Amino acid sequence: MREVEVIPLNSQVGIELGETSVWHDNHLEELRKVEAVSSPFILTFNNLTYSLNRRKDLTLPSIFGRKDTVATDTPSKNKVLLNDISGEAREGEILAILGPSGSGKSTLIDALANKISKESLKGSVTMNGEALESGVLKMISAYVMQDDLLFPMLTVEETLLFSAEFRLPRSLSKSMKMERVQAVIDELGLRNAAKTLIGDEGHRGISGGERRRVSIGVDIIHDPILLFLDEPTSGLDSSCAFMVVKVLQRIARTGRIVIMSVHQPSSRVVNLLDHLIFLSQGEIVYYGSPTNLSLYLSDFGHPVPLNEDTTEFMLDLYRELESVPDGTKRITEFSKSWQRVHEKQLFCSGYSKGLGLSLGKSITARISMGKLFYGDVNSITQTLAPSKFANPLWVEIIVLIKRSLTNSKRMPKQFMLQVGGVGFVGSILGSVFWRLDKTAGGVEERIGFFVFIVTTIFFGCTDVLAIFLQDRYIFMRETAYNAYRRSSYVLYHSIIVLPTLFILSMLLASLTFSSVGLNGGYSSFLFYFFAIFSAFWAGNSLVSLVSGLVSQVMLGYIAVMPLIGVFLLFSGFFIHRDKIPSYWVWFHYVSIVKYPFQAILLNEFNNPNLCLVEGVNPNKSCLMTGLDIVRKQDATDLTKWSCLWITLAMGVLYRILFYISLLFGSKNKRK
């Protein structure tokens, strides 16, 4: 293959949204050079069919195992979401999928983006006539979700720069990554908002249309060939929707394939689209260009009235047909026959049959021209093997930490509330349990203080559940297309909380150790601090695990609150180990509350020279020692250091389980 001319990143000139001419002559010349050395990309999909199995309805007799007197056949019903969908999307064009809610728009997008398991989806999806492996598709594509999942306290430029740090290889210099970010900002028309915060409900930021464009920019920073968008205009007014689609048209004209779903676009938006697929109950009722839609409706016997919007008329028409028996069948059959006559050119592309360069060589040529952004070109050329991540694990962790710190330092209220809450609780505990005496009653009060402070720590850790879940949604979007490893996220998640836990632990230990009158000097205080820190660590890890298992904050609270309560029940405070029934004693050993509680208990009382109650006889013999309390509480099975290490180890175990939950629970794929 002949030498490829390198196109510099800044050769693309930003054009205002309102202009009709998008490209300068020099860029058109560059595109001609691109086409000269590589085949245009054509994504072809044939006979896509996807259905869901509906379970049989259960009756009370069947639940209790009783048989009905009369045997009846109740075959399971299948809900067809896609039925024999075929078409193609071309480089430089926008393919829009239209239809009312429930028509199958998002399902078709997911099918093309490999978000449906191969076992459930029938049919084929190819590019330039070759099958697309999952790893290759992740490498050359991006999927923009309907929700704008962004960190609110980052600026537009920072958001895109962090995305570039993840998606662009480490071999690129900082200046080159910034150059790419600036090019994307110009491409998306975000220059005036580049230094503005994203914002959220409590912080003023950019507009809804700008947020949507930032979401698009995050996913195109690595210059993907394929761009999928699930209703990018949803929730936007007509003006913002037009600007977003105008940006997508500009992106498509740079040599990308853009496939998007739209609910009910305006006529201005439709004029920007190249091809339309109208879906009704999972079937195609029209496939072609917007300009031929009026002719299609006339041939179907429903001409568009004068001054009526063609797209809206089409949507209203087949909504009416859906309510008529065999109405959808009639228009789908007409669509197939009409398409064979009028739209033959849609399926006559030589590239869809595999002519020109192979897929691997076409991708390699595209990478060489931009000198970006997919990493190992040789592996693509030779085997089309799935791409590796753009950066090593340690780089991903550093970038994740930097981004989190940048976002958090602009939201100090969260940290100050945590510090204030711990300070308040510590002050209350210190004043209530002030200078406990060394009597039998004082001993019981000390033990009550120990179990209360440990339990308060675990319940207090649940306040970050909502933050963890919000962070997890962003994680799922970014890892869906290999922005970084799941292991990097778990390690970052573990590291970033350590300074906060250290500060909270030191504050709580300092407020309670002296005021309660606990025994021992500096060494005893130091262990007391470590025990509190280990409890914070284990509690935070448990909440992390729950955030990886549930998708809603309320479900998380429903799961974690009773669990901590049960751990407290079996901690050894309410009922000693030797009194627990044998079939429940295992729960005593898995209780996360047991070990920090026992560690603090042993730190206070496990001293043979500690006399708590002295006799009244002349020699004043000791009637109750610290070891007597340890034996009475049945806390002789472990040393205090063993309890400390077990607590820390349980926190690590919960982090490992958190990783496993993300590994299997965040595939974001339909079955």
Sum this structure up briefly:
It is built from 26 helices and twelve strands. With 671 residues, it is of the alpha/beta class.
Keywords:
alpha/beta, ABC_transporter-like_CS, 6-stranded mixed sheet, 4-stranded antiparallel sheet, 12 strands, nucleotide-binding, ATP hydrolysis activity, 26 helices, disordered N terminus, ATP-binding, 671 residues
Low-confidence runs: 1-37, 56-76, 347-355, 374-387
Helix content: 40-55%
**Number of E-type strands:** 12
Measured between the Cα atoms of the first and last residue, the distance is: 42 Å
Major sheet: 6 strands, mixed
**Structural Rg:** 32 Å
Shape label: elongated
Structural class of the helices, strands and pairings? alpha/beta
Strand order of the largest sheet: 6-7-8-3-9-10
**Count of runs of 4 or more consecutive helical residues:** 26
Average of pLDDT:
82
Strand content: 5-15%
Oligomeric status: single chain
Summarize the SSE layout with pairings.
Layout: H1 25-37, E1 42-53, H2 60-63, E2 78-90, E3 94-98, H3 105-112, E4 122-127, E5 130-131, H4 134-140, E6 141-144, H5 156-167, H6 174-187, H7 208-220, E7 226-229, H8 238-253, E8 257-262, H9 267-270, E9 275-280, E10 283-288, H10 293-299, H11 310-322, H12 327-342, H13 359-370, H14 377-383, H15 393-408, H16 412-432, H17 440-460, H18 465-479, H19 486-496, H20 498-516, H21 522-549, H22 553-569, H23 585-590, H24 594-605, E11 611-614, E12 622-625, H25 626-632, H26 640-665
Parallel strand pairs: 3-8, 3-9, 6-7, 7-8
Antiparallel strand pairs: 1-2, 1-4, 4-5, 9-10, 11-12
Helix pairs in contact: 5-6, 5-7, 7-8, 13-14, 15-19, 16-20, 17-21, 17-24, 18-21, 19-26, 20-21, 21-22, 21-24, 21-26, 24-25, 24-26
